[in-house]
Amino acid sequence: MIIELIDDALIEHNFVKELDNEATRFYVREIGPAIRFAILHKLDDLTTPEELNAKINRSAPAIFANNPSFKKNCDLICVHHLSHLSEFKSREEEIFAIEEDPHFFKKYVLYYSDAEESLLEGQSYSELKASVADKYLFDKYKENPLAATQYSVAAKIFIKLPFLELPFVKRELVPLRLQAEGAVKEAGFLDTYKNIQKLSSTNVDELIKEMVNNELENI
Length: 219
What we know:
50% helix
């Protein structure tokens, strides 16, 4: 499922699929003189970076291998399945070794669990983008960021694959003054905030004196 979502994302970003075999898909995007390549690879077993580079280079079509831009302007997206996210800690070094390898391609390892894949069942890339822009889903995610949710999966895909364009939703901006008033009111300091505003044109000594007097009155 995640493979298909990333495929949709690449197509939406003007990549054209040149070759599709059992484990690997090759894409190219040409905009004027600029050319960029992308490879989507199902990484069943975590291998060494050297083994992965060799495997991809062997399976690359001639149109890729013969282009001098291929190894300089290519994103290799590896999709790796974990039964549970808790497995990541035991595979962390292997994943980072692949992502930090500087040779041949810019590499990304997008790992996912059974629970996360089930949340994406029936989802399209357009719906995935809408999830990232949904403030309600974001607020729920903030309450428990470690839980597998629709938002957490969508966010991970966009964080792991930074060349994807984030959706932009135009909203009316709330003036900073109103945001500040709301924050201090929630914290219980609205009276103090208003006093500071009234006395902001006075000197510091007078401001402190007034605040102390107000505090004494409250006591």
